[in-house]
Specification:
Shape: globular
Structural class: alpha/beta
Radius of gyration: 22 Å
Number of helices: 15
Distance between the termini: 50 Å
Largest sheet: 10 strands, mixed
Helix content: 25-40%
Length: 413
């Protein structure tokens, strides 16, 4: 049975792998958080490539679903090989044929209508054939009464294990040179679970479990328990990372593939798109608001502690509060992929090479825009912490304008 981190393990300095302080920022810890989103995950690879070019190396990567796969590739390879291994994965799982789009009629793809049609055809091909190195359809299909004894998924993900063993050094992950956390859901209990190399020995099945989204993919058995995709409960590792009281000044880079902001849908197609966005987007505002309240309480206690008589400060109650009130400061930086309208409801399983490269480039460019703001990499004062930045999401409504004025939430104007 896997030992999941207790509160003491999760928060203790001993459970946190020792890492060198990154030279590109004054932060002692840099956490890269990667959301689930299937084929959209190439966006995260582009973000990571741009971060490395800027000399920003995460000390902790945490992912769910496709974010877990990207995270494992990052943590399971030496610095110099990470981008190349990410590219190897994304080239392996993307279709280079691109439905035979030729130079003759490629200009027609300038039309959103035509591009949407081509994307839907590509997604249909994935449903029929699967994705090389990732998953393949069960034959005969499990919904047929004589097929596989009623298999509990449409696809077999055993090809993913082979790919992970080829691209990821799990010995390196378990040496704890970089902290790795993977979110999943226990099928039997319905409880969220994290596999964390601070306390767990990470194997390919942990990565596969984090991305086992039903009914497409079957649950993955690990030490007698079965696990599904963590996105069924929460599609971001933000709460897990923020709850780890390491005492280190921390830069949190949250890379989301689904936008919580969106337009009211006017037809059934856009309803399907918006449903997915709402279902899988991160509840970032709720998490950060709650974290800010806790930080204010910790700051207030630290000020009070400095004024306490020695006898009161050494009481068990004061020591307990002091342990939970470290003076570390936080920047939380959000990068959210904004998909074009033509991508439609199948954007998370449209694995054409053309689209993969567009996602990668979008992540690279968005990371460049974000890093162009110096305050992202500057330590906030303890009164300002956590400072929360999103320089990519446009704000238009009256309510959004109010968010712009709220202290320590900054957005692109």
């Amino acid at each position: 049975m896997i030992k999941h981190p207790s509160a003491q393990d999760h928060n203790s300095d001993a459970a946190t792998p020792e890492v060198a302080k990154p030279c590109a920022t004054p932060f002692e810890s840099i956490a890269l958080l990667l959301q689930g989103g299937g084929a959209l995950g190439a966006y995260q690879a582009g973000v990571y490539e741009r971060l490395l070019e800027a000399g920003i190396e995460p000390t902790w990567v945490a992912g769910i679903s496709i974010g877990a796969i990207n995270s494992a590739i990052i943590a399971g390879n030496p610095h110099a090989d990470r981008v190349a291994r990410l590219r190897s994965f994304w080239e392996k799982v993307s279709d280079p044929d691109d439905l035979g789009v030729s130079a003759f009629w490629a200009p027609l793809l300038m039309s959103d209508t035509m591009r949407g049609w081509v994307n839907q055809l590509a997604a249909g091909g994935v449903m029929a054939k699967g994705v090389p190195g990732f998953f393949e359809p069960r034959m005969p299909p499990p919904y047929l009464p004589w097929a596989n004894g009623g298999a509990p998924s449409f696809y077999d993900t055993s090809p993913l294990r082979v790919t992970l063993e080829e691209l990821v050094d799990f010995d390196r992950i378990n040496s704890k040179q970089m902290r790795l956390s993977l979110g999943a859901v226990n099928v039997r209990t319905g409880n969220f679970a994290y596999f964390d190399n601070a306390v767990d020995i990470i194997r390919p099945e942990h990565v596969m479990a984090s991305g086992a989204l039903p009914p497409g993919f079957d649950a993955v058995e690990i030490d007698g328990e079965h696990y599904w995709d963590g996105g069924l409960v929460s599609n971001t590792p933000l709460d897990w990372v923020l709850s780890a009281r390491s005492g280190l000044d921390t830069l949190v880079l949250q890379v989301d593939l689904w936008s919580a902001d969106g337009e009211v849908p006017l037809d059934l197609t856009s309803v399907a798109v918006r449903m997915k966005e709402v279902q899988f987007s991160s509840r970032t505002r709720a998490a950060t608001d709650n974290f800010r309240k806790l930080e204010k309480l910790r700051f207030a206690f630290n000020e009070l502690l400095a004024q306490m008589p020695a006898e009161l400060a050494s009481s068990p109650q004061a020591r307990l509060l002091a342990q939970a009130s470290d003076p570390a400061v936080y920047n939380i930086v959000q990068l959210v992929y904004r998909s074009p309208n033509y991508e439609g409801q199948s954007k998370d399983f449209e694995f054409s090479r053309r689209t993969m490269m567009e996602h990668w480039r979008a992540g690279y460019d968005d990371a460049g825009v974000t890093l162009s703001h110096p305050k992202v990499l500057a330590l906030p004062s303890i009164e300002q912490s956590p400072a929360i930045y999103d320089f990519l999401t446009p704000r238009h409504s009256a309510a959004d304008c109010h968010l712009q004025k709220e202290p320590h939430h900054e957005h692109a104007k």
